[in-house]
Design a protein that fits this description.
With 276 residues, the chain is α/β, with parallel strands linked by helices. The chain has 2 domains: 139 residues, HUPs (Rossmann fold, 3-Layer(aba) Sandwich); 121 residues, Rossmann fold (3-Layer(aba) Sandwich). It is 37% helix and 21% strand. It has a 10-stranded mixed β-sheet with strand order 3-2-1-4-5-12-9-6-7-8, sandwiched between helices. It has a two-stranded antiparallel ribbon with strand order 10-11. α1 packs parallel to α3, α4 crosses α5 and α8 packs across α9. The longest helix has 23 residues.
């Protein structure tokens, strides 16, 4: 599916500008429309305003200032030759549900990994990424909270586990895969047994039909610490991007990640394109 609409999450942190840069360059390369959506709040959203007492006015004022600063930084970035995007501010809460509603109409989201060091300014929920993935069903390019990265990856690794989550991630990444110089597929566990008589459809053949050649890496045994092993293998390959499904389940109004997804989102050192 071609990239025609990209939605990038903006907040008051300077890392928003790295996400914006990547999203801007992606949009320019693929001829896509780029929309920036500011979604952040310093006000404890579960608490009614009267209970905030004297802090309410100062928190709201600070929030307005942070939003204005973020928009000013966005407008400066848009002065670049490839800088064409719209700016919107989320006015409904909770943040995750509001952002997810807008995300429904994007081909790709650009989100930021949660930074545990930002506890002094909790303006974005720590489960924002997984919440948006689960609520919207849209693929997201998750950018680490530190470092600078290639917007147009030359080496891509696919973490392959046959299933809808992984396949949806691969489909979403197809425009990037078609431009990459090298694509690696990583799998664990024994090869599946006979499924059909005659030609069998598989990922390698599907990618070949779409103009993508891959190198396949499979290990017979799946390690207990698969998330850490996956990140290590990706590092060994010098990959610029990891493509994988996001696994988890709902439990009492919260999204609980599977072990590999949780490890990758917590320890990632390169952008990850995920889909639930």
């Amino acid at each position: 599916m071609p990239l025609k609409q990209i939605l990038v999450h903006m907040d008051a942190d300077e890392r928003s500008l790295e996400r914006l840069r990547i999203a801007r360059q992606l949009a320019h390369a693929h001829g896509a429309v780029l929309d920036a959506l500011y979604a952040a709040s310093l006000v404890p959203l579960a608490m009614p305003y009267p209970e905030l007492g004297e802090n309410a006015a100062s928190l709201l004022q600070r929030e307005l200032q942070r939003c204005a600063q973020a928009r000013a930084a966005f407008e400066r970035d848009m002065r670049r030759p490839d800088g064409t995007a719209t700016w919107s501010e989320l006015t409904v809460f909770p943040l995750i549900e509001g952002f997810a509603e807008q995300a429904l109409f994007a081909d790709l989201l650009v989100l930021g990994q949660h930074d545990p060091g930002r506890q002094h300014a909790p303006d974005v929920p720590p489960d924002f990424v997984e919440g948006v993935l689960a609520a919207s069903g849209r693929p997201a390019l998750v950018v680490p909270y530190t470092g600078q990265f290639e917007a147009l990856p030359r080496c891509i690794a696919i973490a392959w586990k046959p299933g809808r989550e992984a396949m949806r991630a691969v489909i979403a990444a197809l425009p990037l895969l078609q431009r990459a110089e090298r694509v690696h597929v990583l799998g664990w566990g024994a090869e599946p047994g006979p499924l059909v008589q005659g030609p069998r459809l598989d990922l390698r053949g599907w990618l070949r039909l779409h103009g993508v050649s891959v190198q396949w890496h499979r290990e017979d045994q799946e390690p207990a610490d698969l998330g850490e092993v996956l990140l290590s293998r990706v590092c060994d390959l010098s990959a610029d991007l990891l493509v994988m499904g996001c696994y988890g389940h709902a439990r009492v109004r919260e999204w609980v990640l599977g072990g590999v997804s949780r490890t990758v989102l917590g320890s990632m050192t390169l952008p990850v394109l995920m889909s639930h």
